[in-house]
Amino acid sequence: MRTILIYSSQSKKFDMLVETISSSLQRLGNQVKKVKVEEEQRPVSLFAYDLVFIGSPVMGFWGGKFSEELSSYIRKCTGFQGKKSAVFVFPKLLGTVKATRRLMHELEKKGSIVIDFRQIKKIADAKKFGNRLGKLNK
Fold this sequence. Notes:
Rossmann fold; single chain; globular
């Protein structure tokens, strides 16, 4: 199974969570491509992937938002129609649910089917998320 992890991150902690999800998926035999939107300017075509993971820390003083770079990148990508996707966010005290819903809404506007979403704060949570979806998609 081909999987892509598209994420926005400005912290080593979030990068570690993404790496843990990726490792969990790879251990289950999935091919994984990671795209950090701050480093990748060219949008990807998602037609070749079976599952799309999208992740961001919750942003804003009161929360409720996700990375603008990620939002812009998602709008430029092609191939979301009918594609299974999973959303994950690094929570804040306030606005986590709102940010998650906004991110899911962006994907659904592009035609993606969000099959799972999580707030991930710990390495163990990231591992469980990757394992769950890696097995689900076999």
